[in-house]
Amino acid sequence: MEVVISNPAKRETVERKDGQVQQAQEKYDLIGDIHGEISTLRVLLDTLGYRESQGRYQHPGRRVVFLGDFVDRGAGQREVVELARDMVTKGDALAVMGNHEFNAIAYYTPRDKKNTAAGYLREHSSGNQRQHRAFLEAYQHSPKDYADVIDWFKTLPMWLDLPGLRAVHACWDPVAIARLEENYAGTPCLNDALLRAASDKETWEFDAVENLLKGKEVPLPKGLKFTDAGGKVRHRMRIKWWSDATTYASAFMGPEEAETDIPDDEIEGDHLVEYSHTQKPVFLGHYWLKGEPSPLAPNIACLDYSVAKPGGKLVAYRWDGEGILSKDKFVAVDRQA
Ligand SMILES: [Mn+2]
User: Fold this and answer.
1) CATH number for 77
2) Is it the case that residue 254 has pLDDT exceeding 70?
3) Are 210 and 241 found together in one domain?
4) pLDDT averaged over the chain?
């Protein structure tokens, strides 16, 4: 399948004073995690000025970049995927893979093609089934469409490095990206070997894909632990990789109740991600943020504001080429009933 990276029709050219013709910076609307919330997505696209005609959603001068996590939870599983896929196929959008698409692929893929009794790359445990139920139910009577949508998920790059901006679902980890590029033919897409390696917790590929799609984690100092929102005991913590924080307490990304368990000591080892304020802006989803959307750092913005939860919002950022992001360029739509 062809992945459309650039649509020359949408690039304006600008004639400079010296007569040279220059390509104008393409303009993008970045959209965070949708999780099956089709009516909210339609309202957001409409608010951004995208119009549907003859089955095609488009804007005369802009394109969308979807930040992944199209599926799980909401009532419009197929509808969200079909809309996004159609926009990508027709050159009206780009998209990166979220952890929920990665999980869907691994859930679908048997460990051994000839013997499904050997299980799947993502275990069909009751917890995993529950998390994936809305998606599985949407495709339960159409195995061909199910196979087809998984094939489309496999075409989604894990990161996008465009001329003026970057997009990744959770963390722009340059070390993980470099290692994946070096070992997997320079492509940001999964292939079968990488999918299998990244589904095995013992491999570096697992850590690299996990960092990009679920966020950077660091091990807690020996003997320390906390309990997460789901009641699970954790010996590692997710960090606010976009911040300048260097201690466990200041970098901690987790439930407030657990904060007292996290020491304010310097993080041990080489675990922090560096993303200087002079680099291209990077857009993320994934973090289930609450409150009023605003940048996490001058050049880093998360657009996931928990649309799948009551009171949540679907959020976009209207990007016109700027290197420093601005709070007034976020567009938020309340979750539709
Ligand atoms: Mn996610």
Assistant:
1) 3.60.21.10
2) yes
3) no
4) 92
Q: Domain check: are 221 and 328 in the same one?
A: no
Could you report the per-residue pLDDT of 313-334, keeping only the tens digit for each? 999 999 999 999 999 999 999 9
**Ligand 1 centroid distance, CA of 62 (Å):** 25
> Does residue 4 form part of some domain?
no
Domain boundary among 252, 272, 292: 272
**What's the total number of domains in the chain?**
2
> 171 lies in which domain range?
25-214+275-334
Report CA(185)–ligand 1 centroid distance (Å). Answer: 26
Which residues keep their CB under 5 angstroms from ion ligand 1? 69, 98-99, 286
Find the 307 Cα to ligand 1 centroid distance in Å: 12
| Structural tokens at position 29 | 């609307």
CA 69 to ligand 1 centroid distance, Å:
6
Cα of 13 from ligand 1 centre, angstroms: 36
Which spans in 120-241 are helix H? 126-138, 143-155, 174-183, 192-198, 204-214
Let me know if residue 7 belongs to a domain: no
Ligand 1 center to 286 CA (angstroms): 4
Contact (CB, 8 A) for 171 and 211 = yes
Tens of pLDDT, residues 162-179? 999 999 999 999 999 999
Distance CA 192, CA 203 (A): 15
Strand order in the sheet with 236-239: 217-219, 236-239, 252-253
Q: Which helix (H) or strand (E) holds 304?
A: strand 304-305
Q: 11 in a domain, yes or no?
A: no
Q: Is 63 within the bounds of a domain? A: yes
